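WARN retry 2 of 3 for item q-0093 after timeout on previous attempt; input resubmitted unchanged.
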Amino acid sequence: MAKISSQDLGSQPIGKLLIRQAVPAAIGILVMSLNILVDTIFVGHWIGVTAIAAINVVLPVSFFIAALGMAIGIGGSSIISRALGASNHKKALKTFGNQITLTLLLCCTFVFVGLLYQDAIIHSFGGKGAIFEPAKIYYRIVLYGVPILALSMMGNTVIRAEGKPKFGMYAMMIPSVSNLLLDYLFINVLDLGMAGAAWATTLSYVFCFAFILWFFLSKHSELKLNFSHFRLHLSEVKEISSLGFVTLARQAVVSVTYLFMNNILYELGGVNSVTAYAIVGRMLMFAMFPVLGVTQGFLPIAGFNYGAQQYNRVKQSIYIAIKYASLLATLVFIVLMTFPDAITKMFTTDAEVIKETPSAMRWVFAATPIIALQLIGAAYFQAIGKAKPALLLTLTRQGFFFIPLIFILPQFYGELGVWISFPIADTLATIVTAYFLNREIVKTLNPIKD
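OK item q-0093 returned
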């Protein structure tokens, strides 16, 4: 493999760069998504449905703690991309060191509290009756590995900020593949049950972290730390936190949305409606992976060139990213509009669910061709370090439009009102994003020439 430098982000053709960054990111997202699906199937078949419920109780807790690492990673990586673009290697190193220290401090604190109050936490998240004991077994083992997962998620974003997307892809694939292999060994072969599932998950985090640690110690990384870089600096902490909060806020709104949707749909249509939403949610996870890959690939390119004050390249990256993502989103739209029945039958044989889900799927994905502008626009502001508009645009779709709509529209249209809330929210959020993005281009990028 040819040696790749972060400086390539400021010199190579944008289209070529975006493909090189986006394809590994998309593959990594796809593999992780498949891992979640197949892992659930394994646990369900080899342990039982109670095990699936137990894992679902634990995941919101463990993923929230791990999301701290992702938030710190994305916030700090925006700074690192811009610092490398401005040839400020000292700031990049200081930021990276502060990211590691922050991740360890916050995650270990949350893990300590989580273990101290484990019974109360498990119970409050739905671990009741027969679910409690297997949930507790899984919870204790997985929680010990969550700081490792958080460090891995943080490190992965820094790898991409350096312009090394293939290594980032490998880091995402390692835990996915190893978790499935260890599931087979610990659950099916050694018959360790719930503890086996937990150890498979935890050890997969360790393997991922080992690879990321190797990367930063190897010749492939430009960021070579010493002990002084780990000392926290208020300016770096504030900047990392302000940008990272965008990611945390997004995760929080997604969790709240799922909570509201499940309750509203259960009241309107019972279990079948909730099941339909679960299937559609799986498709949202899988089908959008190429669009999310373009978004992830766009971030370091925009951040680096903004830091290097190559504003024409920043504009070019925005336009090309929107074009590529729109094309992929349109292809996803065509497939889902054409084959919703066949897709639904992959998940269930229940006649009522098969009858209801295709219509819901068509409504949910109705505005898919235009969401590229929404995703790229919000990502742009995060990439260049403008936390307030990034947060605003991140929360616009679900927080400002979608959640109010799912409370209002069902009053007039019943369950249909829930499903039509999706394209309406997407359309309104895209209009808002287009306004802010266009204003940013006109005021900030157009007046300055390279």
